[in-house]
Amino acid sequence: MSVSYPHLIVGDFNLYHPLTDPLRSLSNKEYTLSALYLESTFDAPYHLLNIPRIYTRFPFDPISRSSVLDLAFPNTALSLFVFSWDPPLPSTGSDHVPINVTLQPRAIKLRPHTPHGAVLNGTAVKDAVVDFTIRPCPTRVTANALARWVTYPQPS
After folding, report:
1. At CA 47, angle to CA 46 and CA 53, rounded to 5?
2. From residue 100, how far is each of 86, 120, 128, 137 by CA, in Å?
3. How many whole angstroms separate alpha carbon 42 and alpha carbon 73?
4. Distance between CA 32 and CA 58 in Å, rounded?
5. 72 and 48 Cβ atoms separated by less than 8 Å
6. How many angstroms separate the CA atoms of 56 and 135, rounded?
7. Buried b (16+ CB within 10 A) or exposed e, 46-70
8. pLDDT category, 24, cuts 50, 70, 90?
9. What percent of the chain is modeled with pLDDT above 70?
């Protein structure tokens, strides 16, 4: 299925593949099933979002291994907008964890703030850089000592 509009396929496919879990030992059957499925998605063209070795399923019994079962495939039209894929949320009580797919148009990303050269006082900046010193780290690190260490007095 090839579509020109942004499209995302997400699901619990019960597929094991070296792209999502490179260190897992796969049986021939597991590899054959997953390879056919993944190759067909790549031909569509869809792209796999999953980060290798990030598990999305945690079994309830201690004998079974954790695995990557939830897969996300955006098509080329949507891939431009995918900002991240990660499972940062705690378990929902199921054996799966929620996956957070963040979409953000590239044009909206703000560039880092840079000083405006016409209004920058070059002499003041040069003097501040020349006089800049890093105080030694406190010998006993506490929250207050660390806060005082990283807080520098504002220039007058």
Report:
1. 145
2. 5, 41, 43, 38
3. 9
4. 23
5. yes
6. 45
7. bebbbeeeebbbeeeeeeeeebbbb
8. confident
9. 87
pLDDT, tens digit (0-9, with 9 covering 90-100), for 104-142 = 876 655 666 676 666 777 777 777 777 777 777 777 777
Please name the residue that has the structure tokens 């063209």.
45
> What are the two backbone dihedrals, phi and then psi, of residue 11, each rounded to the nearest 5 degrees?
180, 170
Strand residue runs (E) in the chain: 8-12, 70-74, 82-86, 100-103
Place of tokens 């378990």: 91
At CA 38, angle to CA 34 and CA 41, rounded to 5? 150
Separation in Å, CA 114 to CA 8, 20, 106, 126, 138: 36, 39, 19, 16, 32
Q: How far apart are CA 101 and CA 81, in angstroms?
A: 10
Low-confidence winner among 23-27, 32-36, 37-41, 131-135 (lowest mean pLDDT): 131-135
DSSP class of residue 113 equals P
Domains along the chain with CATH numbers: 8-108 (3.60.10.10)
Q: What is the mean pLDDT of the chain?
A: 80
Tokens 């900046």 belong to which residue?
Answer: 125
pTM higher than 0.85: no
